[in-house]
Write a structure and sequence with these properties.
There is one protein chain. With about 140 residues, the protein is of the alpha/beta class. It has a single domain, classed as Cytidine Deaminase, domain 2. About 40% of the residues lie in helices and about 20% in strands. The protein has a five-stranded mixed β-sheet with strand order 2-1-3-4-5. β3, α4 and β4 form a beta-alpha-beta unit. The longest helix is centred in the last third of the chain and has 17 residues. The protein is globular. It starts with a helix and ends with a helix. This is tRNA-specific adenosine deaminase. Its cofactor is Zn(2+). Keywords: Hydrolase, Metal-binding, tRNA processing, Zinc. It catalyses: adenosine(34) in tRNA + H2O + H(+) = inosine(34) in tRNA + NH4(+).
């Protein structure tokens, strides 16, 4: 999670919403790391989770990522939760809960829905205060500018 926090700080430096993600193999190897970049890439899908999944899949040569764990600083949105399901990610560990758009415990529980063909193990609230502080700093700066 600390590696994901570093990525979130990179996003903050680039004036992007500070969310970072790190994808780790079943053996504990970091496969990819990313931070939010929808503004700089002019891509509404360029969330940290999506970018990390894309790079991890490219590295493994497979769009399925069984046995992997995704660490992300903010609870994933519905788009990212759907991507986790399609990629067959085994486990999700996230920092701050997102009561406005969270799809892994706050607003929805997409990754745990028994009606879908894959479920993701979820652990939320890890380093939540640190991740929430970065988000608060970002939005404080936005209000001042």
């Amino acid at each position: 999670m600390r590696q994901a926090l570093e990525e979130a700080r990179r996003a903050l430096e680039r004036d992007e919403v500070p969310v970072g993600a790190v994808l780790v193999s079943a053996e504990g190897e970091i496969l990819s790391r990313a931070h939010n970049a929808p503004i700089s890439l002019c891509d509404p899908t360029a969330h940290a989770e999506i970018l990390a999944l894309r790079e991890g899949a490219r590295r493994l040569g497979n769009y399925r990522l069984p046995g992997t764990t995704l660490y992300v600083t903010l609870e994933p949105c519905p788009m990212c939760a759907g991507a986790l399901i399609h990629a067959r990610v085994k486990r999700l560990v996230f920092g701050a809960y997102d009561p406005r758009a969270g799809a892994c415990g706050s607003l929805y529980r997409l990754v745990e829905d028994p009606r879908l063909n894959h479920r993701v193990e979820v652990k939320g609230g890890i380093l939540a205060e640190e991740t929430a502080a970065l988000l608060k700093e970002f939005f404080r700066r936005k209000r001042l500018s």
